[in-house]
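Protocol step 6 of 9: fold each sequence in the batch and record its structure tokens directly after the sequence line. For illustration, a two-sequence batch is reproduced in full.

Sequence one:
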Amino acid sequence: MAAAPPSSAFVVGIDLGTSHTVAASVPLGGAAADIALLPIPQRSTAGEVTAQPLLPSMRYQAAPGELGDAWQQPWPAQGATAEAPAVVGRWARDLGAAVPARLVASAKSWLSHTGVDRTADILPWGAPEGEGGVAKISPLQASASYLAHVAAAWNAAHPDAPLLQQTVVLTVPASFDEGARALTLEAAQLAGLPPVHLLEEPKAAFHDWLVLQGDRLAAQLAHSRLVLVVDVGAGTTDLTLIRVEPGEPGEPGAQGDGLPTLTRTAVGEHLMLGGDNMDLALAHRLEPHFAPDGQRLPAARFAQLAQRCRQAKEQLLAHDAPESVAVTLLGGGSRVLAQAQTATLTRAQVQQWVVDGFFPPAQAHDAPAKRQGALRGLGLPYPADAAITRHLAQFLTQHAPDGLPDTLLLNGGVFHAHAIVQRLTDQLTPTGPWRAARPRTG
């Protein structure tokens, strides 16, 4: 672990996500109530800069002159020049929806992909090169450009406490190997960050839960012996097991008992499955309602449809979900309303296509399918089986043969959906297919 800079006033945490990057900070010695998200200025259109806590982890490699001078504000992407202009964040995502061949996405997953040279200029993957082509960059440089953007945002907001002088924690998937971790550290160095502390994402989620317990921690974990952390983000899924051992009597802790000892015992594979896949699955199902017979929607319209499906999914999987939600795509130009199209997405359809599709009931010894299917993408090793529950069953068979987890910690926006939380906990009930003690969830 790197030592804290002597002039450090803050601890800054950066989550370099597959789909979004976010940063938060707390003053040294501060409490949980002092944690603050960093508003990150980013261009949202050619004429507007907005500050938002989420920076889409995307970079648009523009053609010379395509963006005018706008690519230089609020600050230019690392490595961007007039001959190869680039922009990161929200505007990059929107531009890339219209011209996918120029969009760099999922750099974090490319950084962990051992089947390619992660320091070579390979992104956007499959984009044409040469005269009239796309200027390519490496997964390493793309990752560094997102971190550099965050660093510039921090320095603009804290001119008296530059990021280079702060204690910085950077989260990584638990499944990252040593090569991916080393490249993450190199990306941070290229971005001008100080020596950073790497923290595994499931551990970060678990530490957050521990802090929230306060003085109740020992009591909360008194009956826990094996904690399963399921972290489903926008683009990836990580699985972690943590063993809990009671503290010795007499040590400081609740009611005179010692605090428990926590040991990570297993980490799953890096699975490229997440909320984005679920939104795309819904969008593909609804696409025939909006596209002419036998045709596909233009890329920008399909991206808009996926966004509308995400919003509808969240409503239809909530605890008090309505029976259906209208999904509307607006028209373009001067006839925005006149050309609007609407389709109905029902709660039963989302239950079938998302909950049953990605979290189907699984038996204890089920294993994911190996045959590559529709989720296989160019270059990246997407899993052949989209069923997260089957991946989880295989993980528990391999790493918890003597007893299933009694405590379940769910992390990620996907678990705002009550129906998905219910499906996972049902798998672990005494009468469920895995025959575990019903887990407490956090």
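Sequence two, same batch, same settings:
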Amino acid sequence: MAAVRIENVSKRFGGTVALSGVSLEIASGEICFLLGPSGCGKTTLLRAVAGFAEPEEGRIFIGEDEVTRTPPHERGAAMMFQSYALWPHLTVERNVAFGLEERKVGRAEIERRVGQVLDMMRIGAYSGRRIHELSGGQQQRVALARALVVEPRCLLLDEPLSNLDSRLRVEMRGEIRRLCKELGLTAIYVSHDQKEALAIGDRVVVMDAGRVRQVGGPLEVYRQPRSRFVAEFLGETNLIEGHASGAVISTATERFEAAARVSPAATGPVLLSIRPEAWSLGSRPEAVNSFAGRILETVYLGEMARHRFALDSGRELIVYELNPRPRGGSGLYATVDPADVVPILEP
């Protein structure tokens, strides 16, 4: 395993700027997610690390080695593509062995390593099958086995679960994290799926328009977005415009208390982000951040309900309620803890 360092990398395709001065450090053994909307530059950045997209500016290091212009096969990185790119005419065993054969590894060593990785991926019983005889989840495991068998210094994954159904996606999330941690792999994982990133990643890098907007742990990035873009991209949120004075944020109709992390000297316009699950509903008001209102509409989502909640002031909120129970729609109070009132100062 090896750390990956990206220094001021820029990449253009004609007149389109795909990456603009991106710098990022990924620690050895870390699973780092590149997350963002289509066209944000995340796949281009992954391909630059792999060696398939050479940057016009900047440098890329894997371990202590600068690999900015090193051919892909000499970097010690293995990439797993969204399409899997498996050879349909070869068996599972031969697909997995392909990279080792290209590296002129001895036959006995190939057999040992292929057998080991197939067992690790729990597909050893399918070694003699052709690719078309496998399910989507089994094909995904073959593609991952082929990437792991060459014992890469870092593993690069480009939306590897996008072709799977929802049940298999959840199953394979855990498998990929388990394998990376067991093997101590440094992994860079591209996805547009926020839940996937939050479930697997040690760190999340949110990108937009070829730039990094925020880097942090999954909980930090989700609970403490630093920009409107990050707040809106990672799930639903309630955005409320106000004016900050210390730890108090006032709007035209409400007064919010934020946590102590807001500087007492902070004054001026501010945008609040309050996640829907941060609200709690009750029949009595609490001491702070408690507002009277009524439920306008409810959509049940199994384990939770999504309410449209109208405050008496006229403001409408989105409120999630876990383990929802039957209740009247009016005479309620929506309350939020000051720690979940997050001021956003960046645009």
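Proceed to step 7 once all outputs are recorded. Observation for sequence two: The mean pLDDT is 89.
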